[in-house]
Amino acid sequence: MDSKTFRKYGVFLKHKLSKFLPLFIFFISYMVLFSVIESAEAPEYHYTYMRLDRLIPFCEYFVIPYFAWFLMIPSVCIYLLMQKESEYKRMSYMLVFGMSVFIVFSLIVPTKLYLRPCFIPGDNLCSRLVAYLYSIDTSTNVFPSIHVYNTCVAMQAVMRSNTKLFKKAGMRIGIDVLSVLIILSTVFIKQHSLLDVAGALILFVLADRLVSLYVGDNVVEPVFNKEGAEERA
């Protein structure tokens, strides 16, 4: 690699890091605030429940797509940061808005869920993963479901982008299927009520409208060399 190419990649990586750092700092701050809220006992909780929740059977196998969420969200973020910065920027605004609303709402209206089974059926890896999940994540502060909200944000970002990878039909179908399974997993392993899911979908629609007004769709991608600037001109 010659010095010119090395400098070009250095500028590229420095720029990408500057765009990634604010979102990374937000996520760290969010996790700290969420941990504080989770560990504090609220004087009163509002219970999230719908009658349809009782008709949904517990299924420990849905813990697999539930945990896949922790890989899907950062993967989509990082890929868009490297390949389609305008969509990364929009996705970042969506994530920050929704998760901030969730934190504020949890402080004002603490919520709690009473749907978890007293005894987890089965003796397999998935049932043990559910037990582990229950041990590290309380059934409080569940509305709206950030699992569902962030999944919708990532799925939308993939559908909006026209990158080489995400234009492939198989990839888009795969992400759609995984997204649906993640959303279903929240109710099948009794992490959320259908009311939490509905709240997340409403929040997503609201965030989409507000972010579209704020960011707009005519964002110009940055270029890092003279050739790219000439092509754009």
Adjacency order of strands in the biggest sheet? 1-2
Q: What string, H for helix and E for strand, traces the elements in order?
A: HEHHEHHHHH
Overall structural domain count = 1
For the terminal residues, how far apart are their CA atoms?
28 Å
Helix content: 55-70%
Query: How many alpha or pi helices?
Result: 8
Q: How many β strands by DSSP?
A: 2
Mind describing the biggest β-sheet? Answer: 2 strands, parallel
**Principal-axis shape:** globular
Question: Approximately what portion of the residues adopt beta-strand conformation?
Answer: under 5%
Average pLDDT value?
Answer: 89
Brief descriptors of the model:
mainly alpha; single chain; 233 residues; two-stranded parallel ribbon
Question: Would you write up a description of this structure?
Answer:
This protein has a two-stranded parallel ribbon. The chain contains eight helices and two strands. It has helices at 3-39, 63-83, 85-108, 125-136, 146-160, 169-188, 194-215, 226-232, and strands at residues 46-47, 111-112. It starts with a helix and ends with a helix. It is mainly alpha-helical. Helix 2 crosses helix 3. The chain has one domain (3-219). Mean pLDDT is 89; it is low at 223-233.
SSE diagram, text form:
Layout: H1 3-39, E1 46-47, H2 63-83, H3 85-108, E2 111-112, H4 125-136, H5 146-160, H6 169-188, H7 194-215, H8 226-232
Parallel strand pairs: 1-2
Helix pairs in contact: 1-3, 2-3, 2-5, 2-6, 3-5, 3-7, 5-6, 5-7
